[in-house]
Amino acid sequence: MASTLAVPFGQADHSDYGPYTVDADKPAIPPRADRVLSKRQSLLLDNACPPDLVNTTTTASTDNPPVPTISRPVTAPVKKSMSQATVQRWAGLTRTVTDWDGLRRDPELWFEDGDCHVHLYAQGASRRGPSLRIPFRALRQKKCGSLLSVCYAETVSSTGVSSELVSMSSTPSFITREAATINLYIPAPEETTREDSFRWHLTTRNFFAFVLGKPVVGYHMGQTFVDLQQRLHLFRPNLPTNHQDFLQYAEDQGYRDFVECTDYALASLFYAEHYKLREIWIDAFAHCVGMSDSVGLSPEYGVSTFALG
């Protein structure tokens, strides 16, 4: 279910972004160990099911106990626009969800000893400064060399000498000899709306969260997973392990621990459905079935209903 990515990167300095997919192989993912199926509502809701959503239906036989069912409105849930929705940060290891508004400068991805400044606009298009400050070596370790083929980067020495950085393997020697800064410019593609540009920037931020092992942010976790996977294919196009690397990242962040968590199960179901990953889909679907009494209460439910229907 892949579409075609159209870059080029433009000069527009929007506050919004949109996802752009690329074609990629769908490698077989080894099945995960069975887990105990349990029931829990969304992380954003109380654990107790609202009484007005529970009905009790009685079968014809008096030997069978009443069967509790969930009553849901017949109309589809109203989807909020981005101007109404709130960006969420999902901390999988603690299973907490918080509102997030750190795109201008993200404290979680701002390292005081970082030598790479990430600007979410084209060179010369803004004066607001970098949004992220990270160690450049982390990009090398994650094999992100192709990033420089689609984004402009420059090195600036402590004496103010600057030069374009075209390859991570051809880094100027003064970077290893003295204090230097690398400026990396990643604008949204041209001809995008403000909302699409904002989503693009969120995914750029999440790409560096992947590189540095930090939680992701977004409007819906399932779509956030898909957007991030697409960005891995864009910034690391020659790596056949992009899917496995993302799944390992999700595992390390606690996002693949579906027990008692409808949000994570539905998000992974959406991701697996998009990329046709059979084992991942089966695992997530089985947990959704086990939590069927509360799955409809999750904010991910409106995004993933096509996979359940």
Your description of this structure?
The chain is of the alpha+beta class and 309 residues long. The chain has one domain (51-56, 82-308). The protein is 30% helix and 13% strand. It contains 9 helices and 10 strands. It has helices at residues 136-141, 147-150, 174-177, 194-212, 221-235, 242-252, 262-275, 278-290, 301-308, and strands at 54-57, 67-70, 88-91, 96-99, 116-119, 132-134, 152-157, 162-164, 180-185, 217-218. It has a 5-stranded mixed β-sheet. Strands 4-3-10 form a 3-stranded antiparallel β-sheet. Strands 1-2 form a two-stranded antiparallel ribbon. A hairpin with a 4-residue loop joins strand 3 and strand 4. Helix 4 (194-212) crosses helix 5, helix 7 runs antiparallel to helix 8 and helix 7 packs across helix 9. The longest helix has 19 residues, at 194-212. The radius of gyration is 22 Å and the shape is elongated. The chain starts with 53 loop residues before the first strand and ends with a helix. Residues 1-9, 14-40, 45-62 and 66-79 have low confidence and may be disordered.
